[in-house]
UniProtKB/TrEMBL annotation:
This is 1-acyl-sn-glycerol-3-phosphate acyltransferase. Residues 40-159 form the Phospholipid/glycerol acyltransferase domain. The keyword Oxidoreductase does not apply. GO terms for cellular component: plasma membrane. Keywords: Acyltransferase, Transferase. The keyword Acyltransferase applies. One of its GO terms (molecular function) is 1-acylglycerol-3-phosphate O-acyltransferase activity. It holds the Pfam family Acyltransferase.
Length: 228
């Protein structure tokens, strides 16, 4: 790795570590489902604008570095944009036909043996119960293009969106599931396969969200006992 890229990666790790500690109390366990090397696709639910820091912290905790699909606007922000470009984050022009171009960037990262993280919903979860809703097909299309790459579902619970919660340091519990089985769609990249694979991926994420909810309740009980 070039010295300038190494510097940006080190800065990225420092920002994620500090940012995740400031924004959330991040709780997760190390999972054998995330391999120590080679390409990986991480798919997760999306609760808040700050919870990607928790997902990034989880990936770093597995001694890997995440490459997120992120809004193109982020790349024009001072400092953050510099880090995003320098650490190989992937811009997405959401709501446009060119959003599909992000898959090419994600494929390049996978070909280099890296971790790509994305949110299949393509937006913040807006259901009243905060369970992830229908997904868009981007994650499934990426997975179908790379059938040998494991697709790892991550469920997050705890962070809350909105002004009332802006200055609250919420506990963020994350659970990692086993690779999503998409073998039924081997060799297929058609629209129907993408739609069906998306449903399978979203079901796997929801299962991990349920696990994360249970862990969150456990953490709350533990904190209450320690307070007394």
């Amino acid at each position: 790795m070039r010295p300038d890229r190494l510097l940006k990666h080190a800065a990225g790790i420092a920002v994620v570590w500090l940012g995740s500690q400031l924004a959330h109390r991040v709780r997760f366990g190390i999972s054998d489902a995330i391999p120590s090397d080679g390409p990986v696709i991480i798919v997760a639910n999306h609760l808040t604008t700050t919870e990607p820091l928790a997902v990034a912290r989880l990936v770093l905790g597995h001694r890997r570095f995440p490459h997120f699909l992120a809004m193109r606007e982020v790349f024009s922000w001072p400092v953050i944009g510099w880090l995003a470009r320098g650490t190989g984050q992937i811009p997405v022009a959401r709501g446009t036909a060119s959003a599909a171009e992000a898959l090419a960037g994600a494929s390049e990262q996978l070909a280099a043996g890296r971790v790509v993280a994305l949110y299949p919903e393509g937006r913040l979860t807006d259901a009243p119960d905060q369970m992830p809703g229908p997904g868009r097909t981007g994650a499934a299309r990426l997975a179908l293009l790379h059938p040998a790459v494991p697709v790892i579902p991550v469920g997050t619970w705890g962070p809350k969106q909105g002004r009332a919660h802006r200055w609250h340091r919420h506990t963020a519990c994350l659970c990692v599931g086993e690779p999503v089985d998409l073998s039924a769609y081997a060799g297929r990249t058609d629209e129907r396969a993408a739609q069906e694979a998306t449903a399978v991926i979203m079901a796997a994420i929801r299962a991990q969200v349920v696990r994360a909810q249970g862990e969150y309740r456990r953490q709350r009980r533990l904190a209450a006992l320690q307070a007394h």
